[in-house]
Amino acid sequence: MIVLLGVLVVVLGFATRRNPLLVVAVAGIATGFLGGLSPGKVLAAFGTGFAGSRAVTIFAITLPVIGLLERYGLQEQARNVIARFSKLTTGRFLTLYLGLRQIGAAVGLTNVFGPAQTVRPLAVPMAEGAAERTYGGLPERTREKVRSFAASADNVGLFFGEDVFLAVGSILLITGFVNTTYGTHLEPLDLAMWAIPTAVCAFVVHGWRLLRLDRHLERELLTANAATAEVEAAQ
Amino acid sequence: MIKAEWFYWLVGLSFLVMAAQMVTDRSNPKRFGTAGFWGLIGAGFIYSSWVVTGQAPAEPLGAAVLVMAALAGFGCTGRGTPRTTTPQQRAAGAARLGDRLFVPALTIPVVAMVCAVGVKHLSFGGEPVLQEGSETILGLGLGAIAALAIGMIMLREKRVSVPVQSGRSLLEAMGWAMLLPQMLATLGTIFQVSGVGAQVGRLATSVLPKDSVYVAVVVYCVGMFLFTTVMGNAFAAFPVMTAAVGWPVLIGHFHGNPAAVLALGMLAGFCGTLVTPMAANFNLVPAALLELKDRYGPIKAQLPTAGVLLGCNIALMSLFAF
């Protein structure tokens, strides 16, 4: 039971908003020692862990070109484009993005979209641009909300799309694990079929929430703009 | 054959170059700590190649990782004033270049797609062109390089230092969040070898009543959800929960349909990934990349969806798996 203290360190660390890197380092060291690893083994675990997980950081390779294009006005142009489609509100645009992300992941294109390659340079300026077209400038709080929802559309689309694809890591993990452990013969296709109902639920639920974001923006921004107008009138 | 390691070296090398720029950036009050942090990551990326093949010891890298965590954790890193364009210049750039700006940006996804679908099957002299199993990250890397080349030609930008500077600004803005996913992957491994998984499995079995299939379904799905929030990854939770509850109880005892039970169980775990800061690459890195003040913003946006979908998975499993 005592090894679970490491989990407690993580929960407490995140709850009290300590720096996550420190929290994870301390939890790792504590769990390693409680689990009977030698200091050398703990160090080696951190080393091999870093070396084996470099793939999650590979998106950094896209940062120079994204930064370069942003210098020349990529985000501004994304805003200009969305201004041409007056029917496309923030919520509708993000629902469209969610659908594309899901379909992309379902046919195995998980790295085609992503926070660095599509959300920051394209989806966020378009989602914000759609709201700005209707309401003018966005207050900080609203901007944060729109950006958070753009990030969420990317994640929900990825998670509940990728399992429909046969050759994705999680499906192969399931078949690999049960076929070797229990000597059965599960087909990836059967598992992928069972991912479809949840994928549909995910699109309906999150899409509905994204569409509701429009109403939230309307309420929040109309009152905010009315307040500014009153202040201006009083002056 | 194009290998994934080449791209890790490229990323490592660009971190090292950026670190060199950081040392000389006097606008950053913590320039030495920042440069040390990114320099160590860059060097670690390259050194890792030999750790993976077992030709170099992992302990020095582990020590370096702990130094990185300490540098960032004790506030020794910061950011300089980004040297970039003014909003007016950007608007002018957008007006002048128009939709052409999208060409390099869309090159990344298009090349990634072509690699994943087409180049994956090509081979040259009996060897596949792309290293097997790494096609998607190779596509991303190749796409980024192609996009940079197209962008620099199109924008008539001759200085390589300009994109490196721009990338460095983004990197400094993200800060320590960049390293967190790799740290968490390590924590998952340590949890596993120290027996945390086995303990959680024992806990789940101990609260499990043997007579109700619906309660067992809830224990399996909620267990996957909670375990994933702790580990940050459904892959770590799956073998444990399946060995404890999924296989022996739901499939063995109650004769559930294995494909339905296991697929929906995994998806219940994914709901956990949506709500945990432990899944840093999905939740905290985007917050940093989008420069959000509230780093839990994406989690808050995902929380209600995750809750409803957990319920959906439980309902689907209860209704259709038995």
UniProtKB/TrEMBL annotation, chain A:
Short name of one Pfam family: DUF969
Transmembrane segments: 42-69, 156-179, 191-211
Annotated InterPro entries: DUF969
Keyword Membrane listed: yes
Keywords annotated in UniProt: Membrane, Transmembrane, Transmembrane helix
Protein name according to UniProt: Membrane protein
TrEMBL record, chain B:
Keyword Membrane attributed: yes
Highest taxon of the lineage: Bacteria
Keywords recorded for this protein, A-Z: Membrane, Transmembrane, Transmembrane helix
InterPro entries listed in its UniProt record: DUF979
Transmembrane domains' residue ranges: 6-23, 35-55, 61-80, 101-124, 136-155, 176-194, 214-247, 259-282, 302-321
Protein name as it appears in the record: Membrane protein
Biological source species: Streptomyces natalensis ATCC 27448
